[in-house]
Amino acid sequence: MGKPNFSDEFKRDAVAQITERGYPVAEVSQRLGVSTHSLYAWNGQFAKVASGDTGKD
Hints:
By secondary structure, the chain is mainly α. The chain has three helices and no strands.
């Protein structure tokens, strides 16, 4: 069994539930069936994209 592939749209919506709608990470994690670790990673990923920091120089 490999790791699941979630679309960017799914990830953005999951992050928005935490950052924009104010739901707790644990609640979103349980409801969507993803780990809290993934949610924090996606949050960091999309925060960098939004700020224009791609990590490439």
